[in-house]
Amino acid sequence: MRFSLNGRVQFTIAAALCVTLPCAALAGQDDIVVKIGHAAPLTGGSAHLGKDDENGARLAIEEINAAGLTVGGKRVTLQLVSEDDAGDPRQATQVAQKLVDDKVVAVIGHLNSGNSIPASRIYNDANIVEISPSATNPIYTQQGFKTTYRLVATDAQQGPALADYASKVLKAKAVAIIDDSTAYGQGLANEFEKRAKAVGISVVSHDAATDKSIDFRGILTKIKGQRQDVIMYGGMDATGGPLAKQAAQLAIPAKVLAGDGVCTPKVAGLAGSASKNIICSIAGLPLEKMERGKDFEKRYVARFNQRIEVYAPFTYDAVYIIADAMKRSGSVQSKDILRAMPSTSYTGIIGTTQFDAHGDLKQSAISLYEYVDGKQSLLDV
After folding, report:
1. H helix runs in the chain, sequence order
2. Cβ(234)–Cβ(186) below 8 Å
């Protein structure tokens, strides 16, 4: 965006005033500065996923600002306010309140279901839209809140997809289930278990670890004699990688099935040669199946000099969906953005996004992957 000297001065004043005033309320300035919040773990075991999400949102904001955004006849500059929830539900609620106090008009996040669910009440009370790029627990959008939206399929779809693959393709007759006791990991494992039993797979055990567990030898030694055909793990890559590696070290021949928390490029390094035993799902289309995916990947890598982990395309689209709601409502007020969200019909990187009455996608996909020579390889969509 080009500015005259006077324009630059005005922009600086506007940005400064946003510290103490609602940005959308500024008058008499050439540009209204509007804050969009982002919340994800930027420290801890899932920091690489949180940073990937942040990068996607940042790229969208930079592009929108460069192209110029006009809402209700006024020029608008978007500003990303990113907060670290550390993957901790308690910190997530603190971050949510901080973003509300900071006068953001919408929030992209949180990454984890266990953080998105408790934070959602705070955003709902403030009439602020929350779009999660990756929270898959069905409860997130079933609380009766009008502010919760997501851009991925739910565990009620992801868990059954993994169970069906185990039954139909792997011909599994018995499964041992392990989860990390989080809303995400436990929710995914429970949905898998329901479907597994429905299709005739015997659940020989269901054990709980934590989201900090990296030593699974006790659980694995216990289940080794249970003659399971597959192990299902509900958790993240930081713990799923060591689990797969230790299962191989204990000569357990079972495939390890997991969800999108495990299904990242990083897990191959954590699992080592045992990554060949991992089959995992992502609650959306793979990048290579997105019509504009390759072009987005080029721009992302050029901007951040790193590969895409998983959900950067989803946070990127989330920002554009919020900008679209602003334009359709003719307002940058959070209550007006919220009113425009149910009628969203936006075509972006991940495809066409439309929401049902709960804030879930009307159409969604599950992608299944394996690891060949340490690299993700698409199995099926």
Report:
1. 5-17, 47-67, 89-101, 113-125, 155-168, 183-198, 217-224, 237-249, 266-271, 293-304, 312-329, 334-340
2. yes
Q: Is 35 helix (H, G, I), strand (E, B) or coil?
A: strand
Nearest-angstrom CA–CA distance, 276 and 291: 29
Please answer whether residues 66 and 299 qualify as being in contact, where contact means their C-beta atoms are separated by less than 8 angstroms.
no
Spans of the chain below 70 pLDDT: 1-30
Cα gap 132→70, rounded to integer Å: 25
Q: Which residues make Cβ contacts (< 8 Å) with residue 181, sequence separation at least 6?
A: 208, 209, 210, 211
CA distances from 238 to 47, 113, 233, 234, 266 (A): 10, 16, 12, 12, 8
Asked whether 172 and 253 are in contact (CB, 8 A), the reply is no
Is 322:338 a contact under the CB 8 Å cutoff?
no
374: helix, strand or coil: coil
Helix axes 183-198, 155-168, angle to 10 degrees: 40
**Residue 195 token pair:** 């479907």
Contact 285/350 with Cβ under 8 angstroms? Answer: yes
Sketch out the chain's domains with CATH numbers.
5-153+289-353 (3.40.50.2300), 155-282 (3.40.50.2300)
User: How does pLDDT run across 324-377, given as a tens digit for each residue?
Assistant: 999 999 999 999 999 999 999 999 999 999 999 999 999 999 999 999 999 989
- From CA 320, how far away is CA 138, in angstroms rounded? 24
Report which DSSP code applies to 279: E
Q: What are phi and psi of 218, to 5 degrees?
A: -65, -50
pLDDT for 29: 52
User: Shortest CA distance to 252 belongs to which of 182, 176, 166?
Assistant: 176
| Whole-number Å distance between alpha carbons of 38 and 151 | 15
